[in-house]
Structures
1.
Amino acid sequence: MTTRRIRACDIAHDLIAAGHTDSTRGPAWQPGHRAAQASPRTVRCWHDGPGEQEHLDKYAATLQGIGYTVIPERAKGKRPSLRITHP
């Protein structure tokens, strides 16, 4: 199965449109999501702030509802994240 290209800014936009806060926007830091391009077809998403896993679960549900494929990741010694692709 081949995945389509996606952009981190599109993931951030979709999460913001669903009411989730972006930690990278605004004049001061605030808790929220942060999306980064991992490859042309993959975006990774983290939650910056308290309640990390709870928020990642909410982001995953939101993105899956839109049609993205979301895989939770937890590499040894690293923070949990979501790997997002689009079929």
2.
Amino acid sequence: MSMTTFFGFLNKSIRLAIAVALILMVGFVFANVVLRYAFNSGLTWSSEVARYLFVWVVFLGSILAVVEHSHLGVDILARHVPGWLQKSFFLLATALTVAVMTLVVKGLLVLIELNVGITGPATDIPINNYYYAGMVAAVLMSVVMAYQAISFVLTGRNGPTWANDHDVEPRL
């Protein structure tokens, strides 16, 4: 399987997971509101499950943002330098980001170890699911960024949106 096929599959899988999670979140919260106001009862677990789903949606969305180069960035300097320097900037930014993701993973491993056996009060779902979402996101974002950086440096493809954008006139 080529990397393009893998990233296409990853992109579609994450989009599907986000869509399902959003539908479940809205359904659980809506059902809880209806039950509370119409029947004077409720689902004790719905807000807790919605919170877990929300955390996963945020982290999965951050992976998609990396794949699509949609994260915010300041490109005022990078877009106006030669291509070789753009590649150097992108490689440096990627290396720093992957280093930070490594620190995030180390911190999450500590949190996972500290919270073993602790569960949510209404669902008995392990609290570590919050940290697993961050772990999955940090690892996948690092893999995607490393691939994009190597591909951009070696082939000029998969670069950031500001790369090789020398035809644009500066705006005042």
3.
Amino acid sequence: MSRPAVTPSPATGAVTAEFVVTLPAVLLLLAMLLSAAAAGITQVRLEEGARAGARALARGEDPAAVQDIVARLSGSTAAAVISADGGWLDVTVTDRVGGPLGASIPWTLTARASTRSEASE
């Protein structure tokens, strides 16, 4: 007994073509989601570094110690700027976003914390 020949339907390659067309969009969406997650994590790290740096300044730590604290909490690529205005001390921490799109998009995040000086004058 011989089997009848199966003729391919006109829609046989349609699924493959649709997959090829949608794959770049899915990959772009995934890259965007990963970059957004990396940005969120970076922002949290920057805020924590700025808060800890401001607390250290308020206790009377020197700027080098504050830079070390910020680098430990926010990452070695984070830059901290310390400023004083009257009795207020400010720590501003900036860093670029990592991740798949972070290297190609110049995306810089900033966190700032202010406190009054508690050191005896």
